[in-house]
Write a structure and sequence with these properties.
- The protein is an alpha/beta fold and 335 residues long.
- It has 2 domains: 2-185, NAD(P)-binding Rossmann-like Domain (Rossmann fold), CATH 3.40.50.720; 192-234 and 243-332, N-(1-d-carboxylethyl)-l-norvaline Dehydrogenase, domain 2, CATH 1.10.1040.10.
- It is built from 14 helices and 14 strands.
- It has helices spanning 10-21, 32-41, 82-89, 100-103, 115-120, 165-175, 187-198, 201-207, 214-231, 238-245, 263-269, 281-291, 296-311, 320-332; strands at 2-6, 25-29, 43-47, 50-54, 58-59, 71-75, 106-109, 126-132, 135-136, 142-145, 147-149, 152-158, 179-180, 249-251.
- The strands form 3 sheets. The protein has an 8-stranded mixed β-sheet.
- Strand 3 (43-47) and strand 4 form a beta hairpin.
- Helix 8 (201-207) runs parallel beside helix 11 (263-269), helix 12 packs across helix 13 and helix 13 crosses helix 14.
- The relative contact order is 0.13.
């Protein structure tokens, strides 16, 4: 199997780098200065065990690659970029006849729960991956993996449910490449549980990791649980996730590389102009509107996070008290 990692940032770069270290055939898909650096120097992967440079082939898109029947597409972009990526890759021809959408498995190695639905509109064989992988990508050509002793836990399953031989083979390759990779028949239950945990991403990006964030996080989670319950959506418990991960993956210091925040924080730090809040907090807002559950805290952090991204404001530049005040104002309107 050849793994085509579409989006070689923190998550995709770590997955692709570890698979390549494990002896697997890997192609990275990147853009801009990151692509240039990987093509010129290779991917520099830094971890608690040290740094290594991996000479992995890199391309800008599907037009630079001849797709094969043994290819696996691993989608590791933010959800706001998913539709454009799917439209670019789905119609590409595969050697011997047919298209990527008809023939190739596509694994959504992404936060949020919308990606798999978007993918299944085009691709016949879609798989979910619940990603627990502490990593950082801010410097072109470099990815820092902060997980130890394994780099991450990647829970896998077919979408909308079930398992098959393909996902078992992918999981086996990941297990041989420094990942825990349980295969489950209900992967979306895991991804909805991860969604709840990701509701704090936006407020971390807006306010940073200083003190006083707990009351806001409690409100975000309470709204999230209420919205999921109203929609009849089940998810795994935090206890089950911790029990499954155990001591296999712990966020660990990497010499010379701090990790000040998660994926949303990194989007603001890089000045990317977009953020995934519409598909994290926004998912709870959507469910709330569909099922009559008020979600003012999630609506507020979703809106402010998008303002930060559009205006390219620095992460952590609003106080928690200021954000809480905006949440209270939103709640007072009864929306």
């Amino acid at each position: 199997m050849r793994y085509i990692i579409i989006g070689a940032g923190a998550v995709g770069g770590t997955i692709g780098g570890r698979l390549a270290e494990g002896g697997h055939d890997v192609v990275l898909v990147a853009r801009g200065a990151h692509l240039d650096a990987i093509r010129r120097d290779g991917l520099r992967l830094i971890s608690p065990g040290g740094a290594t440079t991996l000479p992995i082939p890199a391309v800008a898109g599907p037009e630079e690659l001849d797709l094969r029947t043994d290819d696996v597409l691993v989608l590791a972009v933010k959800t706001q970029d998913t539709t454009a990526i799917l439209n670019a890759w789905a119609p590409r021809p595969v050697t011997g006849g047919g298209t990527a959408a008809d023939l190739l498995p596509l694994v959504c190695a992404q936060n949020a729960v919308e990606n798999e639905r978007l993918a299944l509109r085009l691709f016949r064989r879609v798989y979910g991956m619940c990603v627990w992988l502490p990593a950082l990508h801010l410097e072109p050509g470099t990815v820092a993996s902060h997980g130890a002793p394994l780099s991450g836990m990647l829970t896998l399953g077919r979408y909308p449910d079930g398992t098959d031989e393909t996902i078992e083979r992918i999981a086996a390759d990941l297990r041989g490449s420094m990942f825990a990779a349980p295969v489950v028949p209900d992967v979306m239950h895991w991804k909805y549980a991860k969604l709840l945990g990701n509701l704090g991403n936006a407020h971390q990006a807006i306010c940073g990791t200083g003190p006083g964030w707990e009351p806001l996080m409690e409100r975000l989670l309470a709204e999230g649980r209420a919205a999921l319950a109203a929609a009849g959506i089940a998810c795994t418990s935090a206890e089950e996730e911790r029990r499954t991960r155990g001591d296999q993956v712990n966020e660990t210091a990497v010499a010379g590389v701090d990790r000040p925040g998660g994926s949303s924080w990194q989007s603001l730090a890089k000045g990317s102009g977009s953020i995934e809040a519409d598909y994290l907090n926004g998912e709870i807002v959507l469910l709330g509107r569909l099922h009559g559950v008020p979600t003012p805290a999630n609506e507020t952090v979703r809106r402010i996070a998008n303002e930060f991204a559009r205006e390219r404001r620095s992460p952590g530049s609003m106080t928690v008290s200021a954000l809480l005040k905006l949440v209270e104002e939103e709640a007072a309107t009864g929306r």
